[in-house]
Specification:
- The complex is a heterodimer of chains A (190) and B (201).
- Chain A has 190 residues and is an all-alpha fold.
- Chain A has one domain.
- In chain A, helix 3 crosses helix 4, helix 4 packs across helix 7 and helix 8 crosses helix 9.
- The two termini of chain A are 15 Å apart.
- Chain B has 201 residues and is mainly alpha-helical.
- Chain B has a two-stranded antiparallel sheet with strand order 1-2.
- In chain B, helix 3 packs parallel to helix 6 and helix 7 packs across helix 8.
- Classes of the chains: A mainly alpha (190), B mainly alpha (201).
- Chains A and B meet through helix 2, helix 4, helix 7 and helix 9 of A and helix 2, helix 4 and helix 8 of B.
């Protein structure tokens, strides 16, 4: 149980996927203008990362059995793309409400490097299936936390008068820098 | 086929300033921030992306007429992933140290939006030679930006440039770590905007 707690804390705070591992920066900068879209994106990512990690973890066992680990990159990305497509179809049928909430974010996730990044990280660590799933879930919660915090800050930022050259992405990056500095305070926690 | 009006030389140089992938288009931010802890690392990442970009642009330009429109994106991803796997083999064989340092971000070139973006926006409607030039130009722009960002962070963060130390002791450690990456990139974009807007006037 203690191991699970350590994975949880470390994935969310200490090695935050956005602010210290730099995975998934595109949605972090792209869809963080509004709190509600940021939350929607985080939910979709959380769902896909967890599911994709379980599938790629099992797939990797199959690849390893045949000594084909060099196919990881190409097979993982295909599985993730297919999975996202499938999730979209299934959600549309089963839960139209959730589908319309996640809507446009789902197809965008295929090229979100956080998903492939987590899948590729998990297989290099010595995780069993339970730990791998938990790690993926915690990591995506960390993604959600950073995303929502950042979107909140950017909503406030939009009300301020920013120097012309800083408008848009640069001031967002400065904000991200301060947020990353705050998260550095967690290092050494576990 | 949609033809562009630029010459080969223009195709190569536009990636450096006008369509600079890092400072103007803001694409491929993950490797930009993560691998620029030093000038050498930034440059290696840029060159690795350049390699994939040129080869995938050429291959996609060749096969694009035969791919049904509906499945084009998955097909492009497979082509790109193939070249990335090739790159992994080459790097493991000849530059294992750099491969080790860049780590996860080499396989992640597959999902780098610059590569897929060029395939979709340019390579699938232009000739092989033009696509190669376009890949080379954008790749060089990316390499240059990453090298500059890496250089700035290395000078401030560890007091050295391209591995040569010129200040005794440590630099500002934060610039090697995550916060410095965001901050350095923010200021470089601002400087780049200032310089290019003055030129336009």
């Amino acid at each position: 149980m203690a191991e699970f707690a350590i994975i949880f804390i470390s994935a969310i705070f200490v090695n935050n996927i956005l602010l210290s591992q730099f995975l998934g920066i595109c949605p972090f900068l792209g869809v963080s203008n509004k709190l509600s879209t940021a939350a929607g994106m985080s939910m979709a990512v959380c769902f896909v990362i967890t599911l994709a990690t379980v599938v790629t973890y099992l797939l990797n066992m199959l690849l390893a059995a045949f000594g084909l680990e060099f196919l990881q990159t190409i097979s993982f990305i295909l599985v993730i793309a297919a999975l996202v497509q499938m999730v979209e179809i299934v959600l549309k049928k089963i839960s139209p409400a959730l589908y319309s909430a996640l809507g446009i974010f789902l197809p965008l996730i295929t090229t979100n490097c956080a998903v492939l990044g987590v899948a590729l990280t998990v297989v290099t660590k010595d995780f069993n299936l339970g730990e791998a799933t938990w790690y993926a879930f915690s990591t995506s919660l960390g993604f959600g936390l950073a995303m929502v915090l950042f979107a909140g800050l950017r909503e406030q930022l939009a009300l301020n008068n920013v120097p012309k050259a800083f408008r848009g992405i640069p001031i967002a990056l400065v904000t991200a820098s301060l947020l990353a500095m705050a998260f550095m305070g967690f290092s050494g926690l576990v | 086929m949609e033809e562009h009006t630029m010459g080969k030389f223009q195709l190569i140089t536009k990636g450096l300033i006008k369509e600079n992938p890092t400072f103007v288009l803001l694409l491929g931010m993950c490797p930009t921030l993560a691998t620029t802890t030093s000038a050498i690392n930034g440059m290696s990442m840029g060159l690795a992306t350049l390699f994939v970009l040129v080869l995938s642009n050429m291959a996609i330009s060749l096969i694009a007429p035969y791919i049904p429109d509906k499945v084009r994106i998955p097909s492009y991803i497979v082509v790109i992933a193939t070249f990335v796997t090739l790159l992994q083999f080459v790097m493991q064989a000849y530059v294992p140290d750099i491969y080790e340092t860049l780590g996860l971000f080499i396989p992640l070139i597959v999902v780098n939006c610059i590569v897929l973006g060029r395939a979709e926006a340019f390579a699938n409607k232009n000739s092989v030679v033009d696509s190669a030039c376009d890949g080379l130009g954008i790749g060089l722009g990316f390499t240059l930006s990453l090298t500059v960002l890496g250089l700035v962070r290395e000078i401030l963060g560890s007091g050295s440039a391209f591995g040569f130390k010129f200040i005794e002791g440590d630099g500002i450690l934060a610039f090697v770590l995550a916060p410095g990456a965001f901050l350095a990139l923010a200021y470089l974009i601002v400087i780049f905007r200032k310089l290019t807007s003055r030129k336009a006037e």
